[in-house]
Amino acid sequence: MGLYENIRNEPVSRLALREPVVVGREATVRDAVSRMREQKLGCAIVVDDERKPVGLFAESKLTRLLSDTPAAVYDPILEHHDPQWPTVKASEPISRVLSALELDNVRFLIVVDNQGRLAGLTGQKGLMEYVAEHFPRQVIVQRIGGKPYPAEREGA
Questions:
Q1: 21: helix, strand or coil
Q2: Beta strands, E only, the chain
């Protein structure tokens, strides 16, 4: 199969899902940011008692929050999370990830299981890693500081 067929037929669970930063509804913005820093991740997922996502708090939101009201870091996360964040089921085709990234203009997607519980996190990075791993001949990768690959082209 080629790339097009793979992303239309393989489930999201085939992507390397990241372990998300998870915070409960009782967390503060500061709690979420602290965990985001520890895990070096640009977002935190707010979940209920059944581990079902109720929203996402991204570093872009933090930037706006700090420029407007720095003391808001002590506020409950529920006052500042985005409750309408795109999710995708682990059983849906990978093409759903690509569509959501493009249509919703986001970097992260919440992945849920069939019961709606948090299963992981994916997004631009997960999709690009999938493509590079499964189609290495179609992806030319240059290491930072490395020599450029010779350009293949027709003509003189």
A1: strand
A2: 21-24, 43-47, 53-58, 87-89, 108-112, 118-123
CA–CA gap between residue 58 and residue 9 (Å, rounded): 30
pLDDT tens per residue across all 156 residues of the chain: 677 888 899 999 999 899 999 999 999 999 999 999 999 999 999 999 999 999 999 998 999 999 999 999 999 999 999 998 899 999 999 999 999 999 988 888 999 999 999 999 999 888 888 888 877 776 665 555 666 555 554 444
- Whole-angstrom Cα distance, residue 87 to residue 97? 9
The H or E element containing residue 145 is none
* pTM of the complete model: 0.81
Beta strand 108-112 pairing with 118-123: antiparallel
**CB neighbours of residue 14 within 10 Å:** 15
